[in-house]
Amino acid sequence: MIEYPQLLHLPVEYIRSKISDFLAEDSPHGDITTDSIIPATEQVIAEIQAVEKLTFVGAEIVPHCFGDSCNVDMNISDGETAEPEKILGKIQGPTQIVLSSERVMLNLIQRLCGIASLARKYVQLAHSYDVKILDTRKTTPGLRLFEKYAIAIGGAYNHRLNLSEGILIKDNHISSAGSVTDALKTMKRSNLHLPVELEVENFDQIGEALIIGVDGFLLDNMSPDSIKEAVSIIRNSEKGEDIFIEASGGITDKNIVSYLDTGIDAISIGAMTHNAANKDIRLEFIS
């Protein structure tokens, strides 16, 4: 079985560094509108409210969006479901800071809640089949840790975090190497002591790989019937029961059920990040 570390917590230094960059991007020379209208001494109490049902992500993030001069109390933990009108948290502090930080906080948390909510939907669909839902590296540049954290909070699993964390030989690697056999032999000579997963598109590639040996297969863009046949070939090979098998490509919430009873271990779904719709969350001043 191929397994990677799961991102169940975010480093505080990462959160603070990213938020600092986001705030600098949004107000490189200050918030001209707010600073021109609102006195620096004015204080406010604001609520973060869910407008629609969602899986929440942000309890570890929101407090770092408003700096040390604001007090942030969260009423919900990451992974909990929020119904419409749920008060997610309260912020008390200088009005200038709350106004200047509002959009950065909302942009990030709305996106992460959208990803976590979509991940949970896929997990619930796959639950009774004992098939893991995996993420991919199809993340927003600069937001990978945030987005993979949201995936894990939604109940899905993190595949490799980056290109340095694991070996996944894909179609262009095979094309450049000349064949599946050449790619695998060259990889094994590198003696990296890491599990080797191979992306395949047909049964011939599976046969080649089984001769040399791999730890996992990614069955790319195969129909459910083809996947069943591929799984049978792999499982009936020597040590085939120990080989990790995942499917990917064109699998959505509309057709996933037909893939779940094919005998695979997992389905990797890039749509959880690149197709996730932001959830509607607002910040309202109450005092």
Identify the notable features of this structure and list them briefly:
38% helix, TIM Barrel, 2 domains, alpha/beta, six-stranded parallel β-sheet, single chain, 18% strand, Aldehyde Oxidoreductase, domain 3, 287 residues
Low-pLDDT ranges: none
Major pleated sheet: 6 strands, parallel
Number of helices: 10
Q: Strand tally, please? A: 12
Question: Can you walk through the features of this model?
Answer:
It contains 10 helices and 12 strands. Helix 8 links the parallel strand 9 (216-220) and strand 10. The chain has 2 domains: 12-123 and 276-285, Aldehyde Oxidoreductase, domain 3, CATH 3.90.1170.20; 166-269, Alpha-Beta Barrel (TIM Barrel). The protein is an alpha/beta fold and 287 residues long. The strands form 3 sheets. It has a 6-stranded parallel β-sheet. The protein has a 4-stranded antiparallel β-sheet with strand order 3-5-1-12, covered by helices on one side. Strands 2-4 form a two-stranded antiparallel sheet. Helix 1 (12-26) crosses helix 3, helix 3 (95-126) packs across helix 4 (144-153) and helix 5 (171-177) packs across helix 6.
Topology:
Elements (H helix, E strand, L loop, with lengths): L11 H15 L5 H6 L5 E8 L3 E2 L15 E4 L6 E2 L4 E8 H32 L5 E3 L9 H10 L13 E3 L1 H7 L2 H10 L6 E5 L2 H10 L3 E5 L3 H12 L8 E5 L8 H4 L5 E3 L2 H4 L6 E5 L2
Parallel strand pairs: 6-11, 7-8, 8-9, 9-10, 10-11
Antiparallel strand pairs: 1-5, 1-12, 2-4, 3-5
Helix pairs in contact: 1-3, 3-4, 5-6, 6-7
